[in-house]
Each structure stands twice: as C-alpha cells, then as structure tokens.
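Researcher: I've got a protein sequence and the SMILES for magnesium ion. Could you write out the 3D structure of the bound complex as structure tokens? I'd like something to compare against our soaking experiments later this week.
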Amino acid sequence: MLNSLSILDEVAKKLKIDSKEIKFRKDLVGTSTAKVSEISWGKSKIGILKQNTTKVEWLVYSKIATKHKIPTPKIIAISKSSDVPWILLEKIPKSIHPKDWTKENIEAALREIAKLHSKFYNKTDSKEFDNIPVVNEIEWKTIKSNLISNINKALKIAEHYEGKTPLTKTDLEIVKKDLNSKDFIKKFLSSGQTLIHGGTWTYNFLQTSSKIYLLDWQECVIAPPAWDFLHFYDLLPFHVEGFRVKLNELPFTFNELLKIYIDEMKKNKINIKLADFKKSLRAAVSIQIAHLWSPLLKPDVIYLKGGRYYISRTLRLWPSRKAVRQHFSDLLEIRKLK
Ligand SMILES: Nc1ncnc2c1ncn2[C@@H]1O[C@H](COP(=O)(O)OP(=O)(O)O)[C@@H](O)[C@H]1O
Ligand SMILES: [Mg+2]
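Model: Sure. Here is the predicted complex with magnesium ion in place.
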C-alpha cells in the first residue's frame, strides 16, 4: 500500500516504539477499500490497524466516539490529521459470528442502533458534527442527482440484461419515480435526524458473551434514523461465507423489529410517532435501493473453467437470482406499509 511506510512510522511514533517492532499478524476481511490488519508489538500487545479509512470514520473516532461513549472498540492510537487516515483499535476477542446469531443477538444489535440514534436525536448541529455529510432539504438537490445517476446507470444494465438482473427495470423505475416525487425528502425526513451509522449489517457488529461493539463508521451520516433501521433489516438475511453469499430466513417479522426499535428509543426518552417513522421508512426503501443496491448492479464477468464466460447476477457473489429478486420484491413492499 502506497502510504504503508509512513503510516507505520506514525503508528510506531504514537506507540513510542521503533517501527521495526510492528509485526503484521494477518489481514482481516472487510467490504471496503480500507486495509484492516491485526498487528502486534512489544511483548504481547495486539491491535487492529485500519489504514486508509474514510475521513468520516476518522472524524467519528477522533472527535465523537470516546466523548459520547459510542460502543466502539477502544482507540489505541489515531492519525493526527485526516490526510492519510488510520486508526488503531483494541482487538475484540472472539465474537459470535453473525451466522450463529440468536434472536437475542439480533435484538441486542438493533437496540444498540436505537441507543446510538437516541443519543444524537435532533441534536446534530453542534460543531463536532461539522464535516459529517448531512441529508437535509438543502443538500437534497445534490444527493438526489447522485441517486438518480445511480439509478440511470443501473437501468441501462437492467435493460441490457433484460430479465436477468435481480433488480428489474420495473423496480428501478418505481424507485426513480419515487425519488422524483414531490415532497419525497420531506417524507424521508419525517423521522427526524440523528447520527446514523450507515452500514448496520451484522458483520459490522462484534458481539461477545458480555458486550456489543459497533465497527466501521465509514458510511456514517446525519440523516433520518429510519434509514439505519431499514439498512439493518435489508441486510439482516445476508450471510457471507468465503466467496458464497446466502440469504437466510429471519426469525423476526418486520413489525416485530420495528417494535423493538421504537421501544428502545422510548426507553431512551425519544418518542417518535410510529406514523412518522413509517412515512420515513417508506421513503428509505428508495434511498436504500438507489444508494446501496443500484451501484452493485453491475455485470461481473467471471472466467469459468470450461472456457465460458458467465455474467453473474448482481454482485460477484450472489446466491440465486430468484432468492435475491424475492428479497427486493419484499423490500419494495415496505413502500406500501400502512
Ligand atoms: N477491533 C476489532 N477487533 C476484532 N475484529 C475487528 C476489529 N475491527 C475490525 N475487525 C474485523 O475486521 C473486519 C473489517 O473491519 P471493518 O472496520 O468492518 O472494515 P471495512 O470497512 O473494510 O468493512 C470486521 O468485519 C471485523 O470482523
Ligand atoms: Mg465492515
């Protein structure tokens, strides 16, 4: 990696050791372009070094996490400026793999999201949130134009591979119409605004028998909490196993999860009207599809043994097209939520 050397020097300086003392033990698999590795130094010190992370994640760790007791792993060291952002975190010992999560683990994770939302609910105008991207009426024009551009690109692909993509042309057109509809942003904002994590899928949680940690703040943004909730629900069935992706059945219904979330918000003294939250959730579906899924709709060409090219379904690693299409169709049903 380009800046590895200088980063290691910086890390070493912060740890008051020689950079030669730092040993790379192994790389950890994430979903971003950041490089996450387990490193060791001294006699038996171990940490997780995330190099080349985003400015936003750096901001959260350097300015917000400790002060507001966000449930992240402890920060051992962090780069001074955000030019080449890196963070060194305590290593969380053996956690429960998402595929082994029980109902209790799912519920605990969702409550953790609600706790985060309640902490900053409609309280995000202080200086410490400067430079964290915001979804609001002022920014909407720019945000919308990016989302529509994602949809248009995806539409081209869906048209080209007519009938072969899990997000169909019809799905994408529904979303596009939604985003262009009058008062769309008002509806989306009706669940208020808070610091949302932005990547609340199970693999960004670490749960041990006694604690729960929320990792990976790269996508964090000031936005309606309904978006995080929807992201959590949307990604909950997905499981990654090496190069395979599986979609599992959920042990909760949508409404059960909604109840858990609203209940935890109440416990933390935030009362969001259910009707407002639902209004925001309906809009969040289109945001989610345009923001997250549409850019993933690209034909990847995988070279197979027999010398044949094969156009994969959406991601490199999809399960069956039928299963994913059902997932999207269920997701789009939330737009009709009463
Ligand atoms: N402090 C930590 N302790 C233990 N494992 C960690 C820690 N930080 C990250 N990991 C592991 O590394 C993976 C990638 O880290 P993450 O911050 O999510 O990177 P990415 O942004 O690339 O997804 C996580 O899913 C988790 O399994
Ligand atoms: Mg991650």
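Model: Residues 4-90 form a domain with the Phosphorylase Kinase; domain 1 fold (CATH 3.30.200). The first strand starts at residue 23 and ends at 28.
Researcher: Great, I'll pass this along to the crystallography team.
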